[in-house]
Amino acid sequence: MNLPADDQLTIAGRTFRSRLMVGTGKYDTFEQMRAALDVSEAEIVTVAVRRVNLDQTEESLLNYIDRTRYFILPNTAGCQTAAEAVRTARLARAAGLSNWVKLEVIPSDGTLLPDPIETLEAAKTLVEEGFIVLPYTTDDHLVAKRLLDIGCATIMPYGSPIGTGRGLLSQDRLRRIIDLVAGRVPVVVDAGIGAPSDAALAMELGADAVLINTAIARAKQPIDMAHAMKLAVLAGRAGYLAGRIEKSDNAQPSSPTTGLIGQRI
Amino acid sequence: MNLPADDQLTIAGRTFRSRLMVGTGKYDTFEQMRAALDVSEAEIVTVAVRRVNLDQTEESLLNYIDRTRYFILPNTAGCQTAAEAVRTARLARAAGLSNWVKLEVIPSDGTLLPDPIETLEAAKTLVEEGFIVLPYTTDDHLVAKRLLDIGCATIMPYGSPIGTGRGLLSQDRLRRIIDLVAGRVPVVVDAGIGAPSDAALAMELGADAVLINTAIARAKQPIDMAHAMKLAVLAGRAGYLAGRIEKSDNAQPSSPTTGLIGQRI
Amino acid sequence: MNLPADDQLTIAGRTFRSRLMVGTGKYDTFEQMRAALDVSEAEIVTVAVRRVNLDQTEESLLNYIDRTRYFILPNTAGCQTAAEAVRTARLARAAGLSNWVKLEVIPSDGTLLPDPIETLEAAKTLVEEGFIVLPYTTDDHLVAKRLLDIGCATIMPYGSPIGTGRGLLSQDRLRRIIDLVAGRVPVVVDAGIGAPSDAALAMELGADAVLINTAIARAKQPIDMAHAMKLAVLAGRAGYLAGRIEKSDNAQPSSPTTGLIGQRI
Amino acid sequence: MNLPADDQLTIAGRTFRSRLMVGTGKYDTFEQMRAALDVSEAEIVTVAVRRVNLDQTEESLLNYIDRTRYFILPNTAGCQTAAEAVRTARLARAAGLSNWVKLEVIPSDGTLLPDPIETLEAAKTLVEEGFIVLPYTTDDHLVAKRLLDIGCATIMPYGSPIGTGRGLLSQDRLRRIIDLVAGRVPVVVDAGIGAPSDAALAMELGADAVLINTAIARAKQPIDMAHAMKLAVLAGRAGYLAGRIEKSDNAQPSSPTTGLIGQRI
Lengths: 265, 265, 265, 265
Known about the structure:
4 copies of one chain form a homotetramer.
Chain A: E1 9-11, E2 14-16, E3 20-23, H1 30-40, E4 44-48, E5 71-75, H2 82-94, E6 100-103, H3 116-128, E7 132-137, H4 141-150, E8 156-157, H5 171-181, E9 188-190, H6 196-204, E10 209-212, H7 214-217, H8 222-242
Parallel strand pairs in A: 3-4, 3-10, 4-5, 6-7, 7-8, 9-10
Antiparallel strand pairs in A: 1-2
Helix pairs in contact in A: 1-8, 2-3, 3-4, 4-5, 6-8
């Protein structure tokens, strides 16, 4: 690809070439997951701590992920309170998984939307305990600002509710977060991406990365979709760097309307 | 790229590997245009007949386009009536340019939207005269149906008005055309694409190709944007073939919410 | 209501106080329809010629409509070609119903979208035969322009497909028609209105009237919805005349942010 | 109007007939404001405490509002922290204005969006101190839930940022709040309403009331717009009670397509 060689994603001092992070849930088989990860060229792979066999005594998801190639990002999926999320992060660290944590605190009301108050509380505790915290959050820039002030390593707002595949419901709000965070930490659009065009759009708005799970794992052909998403993230990033045209209310001819045959450009 | 080797675009019996068609207007220089065409990997390049030096006696746009590499598609940009468009197509053919024509009939009211009645009339005449006609048209599927019945070689509905970069204003209408045409001739989304995500979306809806001019030529870095658009078309096509997830009103966890630590997938 | 007394709708020389036209299909009973018409305060009531008992020998829809109070507008619902529509209009006139006709030419493809070519052809014939023609049309302003040039008495673009209740899918296109027609003949938004807010919005955009059928007849409480629609049309019209604020990308405080307690306005 | 006589809005035990609340900022003159209030038929009028001459020694906004007719709702506009908002509410109560308070806590970042954390903190304190608290809040249902649990008397989510007139940017989120609150306290859509159709739509979604300031005060004709907004709120409420048709993807004829002339309904 033609992206500049120094166009890297840096999170808490670590650099990555890929701007596509992927999840590991919902695949039909571990083998399918492994093949999709491979094709995606992702470097960061998020894993629900609840789903990992921490003692590794029997077959585990982790056996299918080459940890020399992928950076494992444990997440607190399934935690409904700050206390549960903190406990889960500690457990993962104690088991040697990582001191990075993708923080998710989601009440049980069926919307799968993150609870801003519990998320802030957990983030504060975890940062104080030395974790590198990557919080899944709403698209409210004032919540994002507080997460930033606490010392989180990324801001990860949703595009739309988890698993809906509805794309970016509020470009305004995402843009507000991107403008606010402005190069201090990466913004990663997490949740709701349903198609390659959604991933490209997130990047075009200036997001630093996207995280995708369901849209790949539940596509009709997950491995082919992993490939499509890889291309889409590259396309969106390239488009962002190339500087898109402004949207205009008024039509503009691409060929001069006053031109005559034989006239130059 | 990993698209199947037999995933080709066929128009009037000719096959193409690329699903990105590009225009030649609005570049700062011919050299910039040439470089953008190169990076885009487009095979079909559309040229306003009015802008071509048909007698080739002095420097012309065509000198900058390698005709062994690109297929030149003359267009009737600047024509406001069926009669003008027919005359322009004949002129291009007589000058040896091509018997293919991208038909554009656009009144002078500033909206740059195609006139369905004049377009139908011109299409009918041109098909009868043996032209391969690729008409720029509205997103009205009933107009598309008539163009199809006349024997046009593609249907080229707009996404939004020319040069506005507003993307696909009506996915419903485009889908209706795509469903209607259903593999009889290619559908090419023409006009209004502003960013890579728009190009990807058009392909995801099932369009067979897209045509882009302003969004590349007027980007801050046209050559880089040509690259982004190439990737976006590939991403969108791959996504279409991979089968995206359905959009859902209800959130769906990507990790099982009932799982316990240690549990398998 | 406080609308200016001279705020009247004029079509082909006839004036009306109400800007809400209503249809007569889909009610559970004729009695319910009669009550809804009454509450709506509509003056123009459209009736499918196919559904009218033209010889009046047995119970007919028309027996339930007080023709001294309502102006009956026959429509050509169910006609798929210009020829059928012309024949139906002639039949209605011959039976003494009216020389006004709401022209609908809709192919049988299930979309219920008007065919622009057949509509133009029928409109031309009917205007030449002395009919007052109110054509149901797409939201394509170039088709609207031709209908205007033919001599139609109104332009009646759709908001969204008939019966879908999806409101105004393209405010841009409606505005383009409204700007074009600009006081020459009334613009009536017909089809797709699902809720009072849709009716208000159509009026705010500058439409001269709206025509509603399904959204009233199939509401849970049709008579109450007729009342709601009446209010909504008044609200939208009043809002249009009062001149709404511009939409702004930037927030603007409604209370001065620099003010001190005790400071004046 | 024909709304049922018992269709009343009840907040903290007080009942109101009108579901339109209005603000008092941004009018050209106090006289214009008074006339607009009159025409709006609002009963609840919100006033920035900062703008009120609390000692009443000189001419004040309050001199123009008939307090036997209107219920004055002091607001904390201009407060950027919980502490400031609490202080302002106490000041208003001490001055005899009211123990009701419309709580607004808005940071100085120019977006005019409410800070969820400061708002929650201020709400908690004020409820504990015996205030009737009506908080302006985001459209995040999890924040709304906490405000409800604290004991707030209403939930007042925004439609779009204050003064933008962009209407209801997220119907999904508003609906989620309305479903959650479900008759426990009223939901009042506050901020962003730009036109009568926006007000009607808020009511159709099931909001119990709307609060409007800029869209009336800065309309070209504020008094006429107050009238339009009154009608729109009535229309939307009536439409909500009447039960709108479902939106459908598929077109549905309003006249039977199989009918023959003469056939009954």
